[in-house]
Amino acid sequence: MSQKDARRLTFLLLLSPFLLWILLLVVIPHIDMFMLSVREKIEPRVYETGLGNYIEVFSEPVYVHTLFRTAVMSVAATALTLLLAFPVSYYIAKLARGRLKSALFLMCLLPFWVSELVRVFGWMILLRETGVISSFLQWAGLVSGPVEFLYNDAAVMVGLVYTSMLFMVVPLVSTLDSLDESLVEAGYDLGGGGFAVLREIVIPHAMPGIVAGCIIVFMLSLGNYLTPILLGGKSSLWFTGHIYSQFITRFNWEFGAAFGFILLATSSLLVWLALRLSGQTLASTIAKS
Amino acid sequence: MLMVRQPSRRLSKGWEYTTRMDYDLECQSIVKTFGVFRAVDQVSFQIERGSFFSILGPSGCGKTTLMRMIAGFYEPDSGDIHIKGRSVLSTPPNRRPVNMVFQHLALFPMMTVAENIAYGLRRRRASRSEIETRVADALHRIGLPDSGEKRIDQLSGGQKQRIAIARCMVLDPDVLLLDEPLGALDLKLREHMKVELKQLQHQLGTTFVYITHDQSEALVMSDRVAVMNDGKFEQVGTPQDLYFQPDTAFVAGFVGDSNKWRGRVLNRDATSLKLEADSGETLVGVPGGSAAADRGMAVDIFVRPESISLRRVTSSEPTSTPGDTVNHRAAVVESVLFNGAQSRALVKTRQGEDMAVALPQTGEYADLREGEEVTLAWSIEHCRCYPASSG
Ligand SMILES: Nc1ncnc2c1ncn2[C@@H]1O[C@H](COP(=O)(O)OP(=O)(O)OP(=O)(O)O)[C@@H](O)[C@H]1O
Ligand SMILES: [Mg+2]
Predict the structure, then answer these.
(1) Residue A62 burial by Cβ neighbours in a 10 Å radius (0-12, 13-18, 19+)
(2) Is B102 close to A187, i.e. CB distance below 8 A?
């Protein structure tokens, strides 16, 4: 066996776990899901191939409304996370030094040492009617009776932003870290104010990180199940809730699969749109951040 | 080459000039400490309008720190900075009428060349048509008329250099600060840019403050040079002053080459000093700086290779002695370093000291060989001594 063949074999062997993972856990289930989603149930045990499931989803206003609402809320959560994470990341990357820097970074990571369920319960303890905030307000005499902070869109938003912070901070810190301080100084030296330097120098430099962070956070929010359901309550109308109920409650896998594919298509479409609008490519975003 | 004079901000802002109109930049006893370390220590100087001023010093002596205080990025612990007679200490960097060419240029990689040059003009809310004409003009003057749409990483080192200067010059600053701008260029380009920068400054009439650790850059380009060491200015003067009348041992050693001895003063009379080197032999010289040299004082003695006259020892020719040339050595040539006009011979004297001697350019010594016996002579005034520095 020549050396070249040996090298190729090594390469294939090293690659095979990854290929297996992609094939078994991503490609095959998706093909199967797709087959399911285009299978229409005509009568018990009689099926026909067609787009009937999809048509049914889109002809039901509550599903369309939920999809729209989920997308808008996810975009809003992404924007809010970016707004909050940018100053934090800038501080960590450019202003903090030495030990403070790693301590701050660790603090962003800390919430992820407990499971998402525990994190969401934490928020519920704070926000519920008999929770910490409500009791405090009553104790301080600011409100007369208990206040319910849970089960509304704001609570869902808080939960989504909290869960997503880290995934925005990490790519932002890594791009901002590579920003040469003298560029910022040159920006000031040539007459720019703080806002001009931010807009013309810092943000264009951080763009790959911003886009990468936004994609991750958007996908996470759109596909999140626990946070919207627990913090938003039964009426939260999150698209993943429908998928869950079709598969688990109603055993209507064909319909659930169609839901899944609609969600996948929506997120792909929105990410593609965002990339087009920001003038970035997926490749440059991943390479730089 | 570069730049139109447009109605500049100093006119539009209507500043009142109270004093010292003829100085563009004046620093008064500036001090900057980092913790307990004094990076800049009681530095004072004035720069005349339209002149080329260099700050020359070894790495780490505080040059960049001083410049960053002038640009406004550091605040001095004490002292004052005046630009055109007006204190700028309370003015933030983006409002100071100075611009800086950074040590590593700091061109904006996210913008094209034209956008880089237009950046400052856009900050001043110049009209689009004005920006366009001035950018085109600037590109034309630096000889890169077609490069406006290029990205920064498509430029060569020398081109980047010129863009960085053009980016500042379109703003027509009162003072342009340059922090070792030629450091990253190769030798040939550096020689070229030296001449070009000097011409540029001459044409624009803008005051340049130029930082370098390369003495030839400072000597060639500047009207005046400040030699900086350990945060202090050792001497400020014309390049000729620094070369021919250095004030301190540091300047004598740093500017130009020198043969150096450590020694002490044996005796002094009205015009000269009798000196004894640590190696035991005697020399006659003059005090270099303003400091008085007393008997017994430890001194550093400097003689430039080019002020030593060299003579072959031949049986026919008696070694004659011109009037004041009282320092003599008999020596043997150890090696000849040929370098065109800067050729020199390394010799070892009878007493065992190593010295460098410049070879005269008459061609008479073109065939000087290793092992030949020579005599060296240098006059009293070319043998300067300074109170010994601790280093
Ligand atoms: N921000 C800072 N904090 C602490 N010390 C500093 C800081 N900036 C500079 N120094 C110290 O001050 C001294 C002077 O630094 P400076 O950058 O002014 O040197 P320089 O003359 O420009 O040297 P070079 O020719 O290498 O650029 C150095 O010893 C440096 O370690
Ligand atoms: Mg420096």
Answers:
(1) exposed
(2) no
Domains of chain B: 10-97+173-249 (3.40.50.300), 257-313+321-387 (2.40.50.100)
Q: Do B123 and A189 touch (CB under 8 A)?
A: no
B15 touches chain A (CB under 8 A): no
CB B93 to CB A204 under 8 A?
A: no
Judging contacts by C-beta atoms under 8 Å, the chain A residues touching residue B181 are none
In a domain, A44, yes or no: no
**Residue pair B184/B129 in contact by the 8 Å Cβ criterion:** no
Domain CATH number, residue A156: 1.10.3720.10
CA neighbor of B44 nearest in space, from B58, B57, B26 = B26
A180 assigned to some structural domain: yes
What is the rounded CA–CA span in Å between residue A84 and residue A112? 18
Q: Which domain holds residue A222?
A: 60-288
The total number of structural domains that make up chain A: 1
Q: Please tell me the residue having the least CA distance from ligand 1 atom 18.
A: B62
Q: Rounded to 5 degrees, what are φ and ψ at B80?
A: -140, 150
Q: Does residue A232 fall inside a structural domain?
A: yes
User: Which residues are registered as beta bridge partners of B386?
Assistant: B300
Beta carbons of A188 and A204 less than 8 angstroms apart: no
Assigned domain for A105 exists: yes
Q: What's the token pair of residue A273?
A: 């749109």
In three-state secondary structure terms, B51 is coil
Tens digits of pLDDT across chain A (289 residues): 577 888 888 888 888 888 888 888 888 988 988 888 888 877 777 778 888 888 888 898 989 999 999 999 999 999 999 999 999 999 999 898 889 988 988 888 888 888 888 988 888 888 888 888 888 888 888 888 888 888 888 899 999 999 899 899 999 999 999 999 999 999 999 998 999 999 999 999 999 999 999 999 999 999 999 899 888 887 778 888 888 888 888 888 888 899 999 999 999 999 999 888 888 777 776 665 5
Query: What ipTM is given for this predicted complex?
Result: 0.78
